[in-house]
Amino acid sequence: MAISSSTSPYPQVAFIGLGAMGFAMSTHLVRTGFNVVGYDIYGPTLERWQSTCDDIPESRASTATSPSEAVKNAQVVCLMVANHHHVHSALFDEKVGAVHSLPQGITVIIHATIPPTEPSHVRSRLTEEFKRPDIRLIDAPVSGGVARSINGTLTIMAASDIAKNLEQPDARIVLDNVSSKGKTLFVIPGTLGAGQSAKALNQVMAGIHIPSASEIMGLAAINGVDTQKFYDTLTTKDSSGKTAVGWSWMFDNRGPRMLSAEPPMASATAIINKDVGIIRDEEVRLNVELPLLNEADGILKTVMKTHSSADDSCIVQYYLGFNSDRANLVVQSAGKSELSSAEQETKIQDLGTAHAVIHLISAFNTITFAKALNLMHADQRKQWYTLISGAAGGSTIFSEVIPLAFNDSNGVEAAFKKYANEKFGADTLEKTLSIIKNAKSQGYEPKLLEAAVARFRQFVE
Question: Residue ranges of the 6-phosphogluconate dehydrogenase NADP-binding domain (predicted)?
């Protein structure tokens, strides 16, 4: 049973949207001591949320039957809904929209990932259509997945049309409590939408790295490699604390689920598909092309046809063939290999390097997108580099090559070419082409690796 109290160091929060991320974020706030009123359009989710909160000692959580009811006594509103259509519905629905009950001077935080143009649209509707210029609006998408939502260590990219909104005590204490006590909260220069632009940069990497993690794990399996050993090798730091060349945050995070016969639902394919769709729309708006991201988009759209609600670690089965005899080959190959120790070590090294080639081209796509978004001023680029390096888009290669690209007097292209030759060289090109040829001979299509190699060839030849 929730405990009510009029004394608390924390503001009352209305949390609208209790999907995987919203559920974890909001229950973390409840555990911290916040009085949280939760709302979700799906009744069973709302019931499960209340039941979970009731098991938290000294819980001060309760539920509402509509967004309008949820916000009546709130000081901060957090929106973690699926898309921008749901943001508008939750706020502006004719009958039950939150706007009809929002207290004066309240702060509304949009945590959902939406197009960068949408926060300003929300601001316009609040001010012009509903005559509520008093409402403080913050654009604050998040990165880090459910695990970091649960323990309050998300990376948050926050922006507003009025800078002091981000320092307003009620808003700041909420943001700090879900971002490592503010250590992983990034205030993005600019106005509303700047947070979404920063998130979009991160999602270029994430949108490529989610399918590439599956692609490379499937490649390990068809090459006879012990997939558990492959995962362990790519995710183990050396004695100096440095990550392996083929490491990415997404491979590290998704690997255990790919290796599990019954993986938990942590992040549905539909989520990253939606985020990549936003970037594709931005490509059109900004007249820029991100070839590797576009290849990833094609893979995600195919998986969406049959597995939209499945955890995105299922993409490895797409590569191996849904419902085929080798669909579960990654799981079956864990702890097993008929290769000699020397043969396996060589294959692991070559596959790890091939994965790094994909990461190199994803980093190049990211900096191309940053240019299109006009995020290349010294203060901006330092911030998004730091942000992505510590968020879900991170990789060993990104952390190494991007600072070089910032500082090369000959430009980004020259920096990537120099780095590719020094780090990899033509030998890597030949080995990677051999990996692709061997995979295709087994009916396996390493689409991202093949697309990455097409660009990589221009750097090393």
Answer: 12-162
Q: How far is CA 223 from the centre of its chain?
A: 29
Domain assignment present for residue 2? The answer is: no
State the pLDDT confidence band at 7, using cuts at 50, 70 and 90. low
- Whether residue 172 is found in the same domain as residue 221: no
- Rounded Cα distance between 58 and 31, Å, is 8
Point out the domain boundary residue: 192, 218, 242: 192
With a CB cutoff of 8 Å and minimum separation 6, the contacts of 194 are: 116, 139, 157, 159, 188
Strands 107-110 and 76-79: parallel
Q: Which long-range contacts (CB under 8 A, 24 or more apart) does 435-442 make?
A: 435/219, 435/223, 435/350, 435/351, 435/354, 438/223, 439/219, 439/222, 442/222
Residue 5 lies in a domain: no
Residue where the block lists tokens 């292209």: 413
Q: How many domains does the chain have?
A: 2
Q: What is the pLDDT of residue 39?
A: 98
Looking at the fold, whether 422 and 351 belong to one and the same domain comes out as yes
CATH number at residue 168: 3.40.50.720
On the 0-12 / 13-18 / 19+ scale of CB atoms within 10 A, 404 is middle
| Helices and strands counted in the chain (H then E) | 20, 9
The two three-digit tokens of residue 113, written as one number:
């990932």
φ, ψ for residue 259 (rounded to 5)?
Answer: -85, -5
188 & 202 share domain: no
pLDDT digits (tens, 9 = 90+) for 342-378: 999 999 999 999 999 999 999 999 999 999 999 999 9
Cα dist from 342 to 63, 231, 345, 399, whole Å: 59, 17, 5, 30
Residue of 443, 197, 208 lying closest to 312 (CA atoms): 208
Which two three-digit tokens encode residue 160? 């507003």
Q: Domain containing 227: what range? A: 198-460
